[in-house]
Amino acid sequence: MAQEGLLVSAFYVLVFTAMLITYRVVRGPTLPDRIVGLNTITTKVVIIIAVVSVIRREYYLVDLAIVLLMVNSVGGLILAKYMERRSHA
């Protein structure tokens, strides 16, 4: 039971910090700042899904978290390539 309370606390901390990072995504000041902020929020969402999976004992949600993490990685690479091409033009 104490372990579940710790996981619930971790859930709230992760949600709170993700909301703080939302400021960086919305306000910038630069495109790389926004991309890093969005990447960080997505990573936090993956961890939140994993924590919820353990709390509710619904481990199939871990598969969803893994897929989201892969999409996040590929999206980050695509955005980095876009920024590289934009800087050369």
Automatic annotation (TrEMBL):
The keyword Hydrolase does not apply. One of its GO terms (cellular component) is plasma membrane. The chain crosses the membrane at residues 6-23, 35-55, 61-80. It is found in: Cell membrane. It holds the Pfam family MrpF_PhaF. InterPro entries: MrpF/PhaF-like (IPR007208). GO terms for molecular function: sodium:proton antiporter activity. Keywords: Cell membrane, Membrane, Transmembrane, Transmembrane helix, Transport. It comes from the Archaea. This is Cation:proton antiporter.
